[in-house]
TrEMBL record:
Residues 196-231 are annotated as: Disordered. Residues 211-223 have a biased composition (Polar residues). This is Uncharacterized protein. Residues 199-209 have a biased composition (Basic and acidic residues).
Length: 342
């Protein structure tokens, strides 16, 4: 229960307040205005720059703690009733830079949000643009952010309305134009980049699904003549999941010699992390690779060879030089520059 006053606040000295174009003065006990910086003990009169419509909202809140406007004479306004009510609410909010009434600020902000739902957002922007004066910094910032949020919501519902930005041409407040232009650009950018990010995610997901299988590419020149060494090769592709118990990395690279010509060679990269230490696997690896002069598969790098832990014949080693895979043309291709050659 609130404490009871010892003396009636309504019996305190009254302050005469004159609003613009008001037909009569408003009288408010000074005790109600003790938080207002513009109230003076030496004077019982104050001229306020607000209209009588706005003044009524301010005085009514001081007495009742509620938001209320005067009845609107629709014969005197060119727009509909909701438009007129939104204009008054906006003016009241801007007046709160001078009148320190935190409770009223929350009420009028809710009123603006409610009234704006029945008015097209572009019309709301134009209305608020006419009311901004550059003095009520805090209140104007709230209005700007409110407009941006409302525009983003409208954009999400119907982006076609935003293809023509002539809205900005009809505004007058430079600060508002800059603020809206910057934030609308952010909105456009985020809406455009989302499909691109989604497409990239889908492509990466598709690539990850291909890790269970890998293509081994056989490059075969059309001619074996030395004079036709630059001939474009034919490409044959086959699917390989594993070889000799060893996992195969999904990424393959084409084999070209120093002259940028394609050599006839089967090549895969072996993932050493998937190699087992089992002797059976080692034996299987030996049989899988074979010790032919031109093996079908070349392992990549010194580290991989050490992991196999089996002997290679001299003829097989002659075709392996660190990360370099030797082709039938006796030229070399650096399969992985990150490995140091033997």
């Amino acid at each position: 229960m609130k404490p009871r006053p010892k003396t009636s606040p309504y019996a305190s000295t009254l302050l005469e307040i004159e609003f613009n174009e008001a037909e009569s003065l408003s009288y408010v006990p000074k005790v109600f205005l003790q938080d207002q910086s513009w109230v003076s003990e030496e004077s019982d009169y104050y001229a306020c720059n607000c209209s009588e419509e706005v003044g009524h909202v301010l005085i009514h809140y001081l007495f009742t703690g509620e938001y209320q406007i005067l009845e609107i004479d629709e014969t005197k306004v060119s727009q509909d009733k909701s438009w007129a009510e939104l204009r008054i609410a906006t003016q009241v909010l801007l007046a709160l830079d001078e009148w320190k009434l935190p409770g009223l600020q929350g009420l009028v902000q809710s009123e603006i949000e409610s009234l704006s739902k029945s008015i097209h957002i572009f019309d709301v922007v134009r209305l608020i643009d006419k009311e901004l004066n550059g003095f009520a910094i805090k209140q104007e910032l709230w209005l700007k952010n409110f407009l941006v949020n409302s525009l983003n919501t409208a954009f999400a519902k119907n982006s076609k309305e935003f293809e023509d930005l002539s809205l900005l041409d009809k505004l007058h407040n430079i600060d508002l134009i800059k603020f809206l232009a910057k934030n609308l650009f952010k909105t456009y950018h985020s809406r455009i980049s989302k499909p691109l990010r989604r497409k990239g995610t889908e492509e990466r997901r598709k690539d990850s699904q291909d890790t269970d299988s890998v293509s081994a590419v056989t490059l075969t020149p059309e001619s074996t003549s030395d004079d036709e060494f630059e001939t474009s090769p034919k490409i044959k592709t086959s699917k390989i999941k594993s070889i000799g118990g060893f996992g195969i990395e999904p990424t393959l690279i084409g084999i070209k010699d120093k002259n940028d010509s394609v050599s006839s060679l089967n090549y895969v990269r072996i993932n050493k992390s998937s190699i087992s230490n089992s002797k059976d696997i080692h034996d299987q690896a030996s049989s899988s690779f074979g010790l032919s002069k031109h093996p079908d598969l070349f392992c990549n790098g010194e580290d991989n060879l050490e992991s196999f832990d089996f002997s290679l014949s001299r003829s097989f080693k002659s075709n392996l030089i660190g990360p370099y895979a030797k082709s039938e043309r006796r030229s070399y291709h650096n399969a992985d520059p990150s490995f140091e050659p033997w």
